Amino acid sequence: MKTLYKIPEAFTDRPTTYCPGCPHGIAHRLVSELLDEMDLTKKTVIVWPVGCSVFGYYFIGTDAVEAAHGRACAMATGIKRSHPESFVMTYQGDGDLASIGIAETVHAAARGERISVIYVNNGNYGMTGGQMAPTTLLGQVTTTSPYGREALANGFPLKVPEMLAAIDGPAYIARAALDSPKHIIQAKKFIKRAFTAQRKELGFSLVELISSCPTNWKMTPEEALKRIKNQVLPVFPIGELKVDEEVE
Amino acid sequence: METKVIINEERCKSCSLCVSVCPKNVLRISNRLNPKGYHPAELFNNDECISCGFCYLICPDAAIVEVRRPIKVKS
Question: What is the distance between the alpha carbons of residues B15 and A246, in angstroms, rounded to a whole number?
Fold first, then answer.
């Protein structure tokens, strides 16, 4: 028998604390696979956020620190500047990166810090019970927008990659989705390019991963992935938004 | 024949995403219970499995540990 796929060694044996069907596990596995393939596991520092993935350091076996809410990019800046030989990445959700941490993220990108950011966007605050986030779609019902998000009262969904792609600092900005095997393979390719951008010292790199939240969307995992395809991806189109020529 | 998909039933949370993406419909949710109280997924038709690995790619809990393909022997 020839092995085609195998769980990477960087992914620990400890069972994840996520709800059944939560794509956080898929994102963790993609990161672990790439760290193993690129031989980075031993020299990686992952800055974990506040949110559902707050216990991420139990699941990916690298060195890790836990940042204050939203401050992962600021903390990663300090680590990368004092240990330039380390591979420094942050793993953040949309409540963490796009809401409270937007200033840290935008300025880390504007300074062109040599860090990689994995940004998981599920359109609400998952850990605290599904409140409205900056990335919540118009009309989406959450616990703090019971009649659906309205543009006049709550504004429009925030598109972080488009915003950062307009700055000169970033070397690689992309958006991928975790809703089907095809898109997951594409997501892995994008994350690999983001990691390559840091290894070649080109600048800031960010990959947004469109994810689901079956528990707070009150759907089965399968329905939640269908909702991504039908409702979320038309608003957040996937693709590479900024690619430095030397990333390839 | 050896099993083509190795499933760690203790990690499975019965989300049934692997069942939904399987192109040959050879996976199903079993009647057994695992220590966490979920019904784990199982491969019930090993012969029809084409080792595409879609179940591995979509599994959020690393419960699909390994996907293998038999080596063809030239006769």
Answer: 41
Whether chain A has a CB inside 8 Å of the CB on B35: the answer is no
- ipTM tops 0.90: yes
Q: What is the pTM of this model?
A: 0.94
For A19-69, how does the pLDDT look when each residue is reduced to its tens digit (9 = 90+)?
999 999 999 999 999 999 999 999 999 999 999 999 999 999 999 999 999
The answer to whether the CB atoms of A221 and B69 lie below 8 A apart is no
Residue B34: give its domain's CATH number: 3.30.70.20
Predicted confidence band at A244 (pLDDT cuts at 50, 70, 90)? confident
Interchain pair B58, A11: CB under 8 A: no
Contact B60 A21 (CB under 8 A): yes
DSSP state of B71: P
Class of domain A24-247: alpha beta
Q: Which domain holds residue B49?
A: 5-67
Residue among A23, A27, A180 at smallest CA distance from B22: A180
Best B13, B34, B72 member to test A by mutation, with max A CBs in 10 Å, is B13
Q: Taking a C-beta distance cutoff of 8 angstroms, is the pair A49, A91 a contact?
A: yes
